[in-house]
Amino acid sequence: MINNLQDTITLNNGVKMPGFGLGVFKVEDGDTVINAVRDALSVGYRLIDTASVYGNEEGVGQAIKDSGIPRDEIFVTSKVWNDQQGYESTLQAIDESLEKLGLDYLDLYLIHWPVSGKFKDTWRALEKLYRDKKVRAIGVSNFHVHHLEELLKDAEVKPVVNQIEFHPHLTQRDVLAFCKENDIQMQAWSPLKKGRIFDEPLLVDIAEKYGKTVPQVLLRWDLDQGVMTIPKSINKNRMIENADIFDFKLTAEEVEQIAGMNINERTGSNPDDF
Description:
single chain, alpha/beta, TIM Barrel, eight-stranded parallel β-sheet, 10 helices, 39% helix
């Protein structure tokens, strides 16, 4: 259980990863992302999640450098994009990401989407990067159960993380159960469903009960299921509000009630069709 912004969860390879962090999907490179990451670090965030396709690795790296916080106290995730997948091209892709970030290593490197016919070769490259200590941990993103099963058939290193779209309208219980059974940590992207569920009566009622906001209830719901979460924001006050979730806990009944809102509705693509 994580009890503050800097509390960690121990991954299946022993690496400790903050359970709560900042996502920077679609945050513009330059001053916008530099300010966002700088603000996040200044209020205590220690996990920053980016990707090559976001086009903002340079700004993320600049903010980390400017922060003055020791490198080993900040956990940095990036991801290999679909057109970079394959063995050799993945080895090249991480060098490009590291150069843009201005870092010697990544804490976590993910396969961004399960590109059919390529993700197993991509995984072999990630295993090499892990052995070569260019990354401290390797994982996947947007993998369904059948993708994970296919990967695990030949994997020499088990993924530590599966980062998926996860919110009360898309609970993906099968993926969550499989990850728990196989000691793969699940992490939620789009945990707030871009604000599209903030007026759901159940969530409003629970928020009122605890004197919290609906976003805070949603993020607490992630943690209460053992799911890491990376809400995106460029607003410092919102970052502080998002992280103000360590003074309450949902009941098991409330966790299940919220899960009962599932309608299998995505804000992003289905990995099987992407």
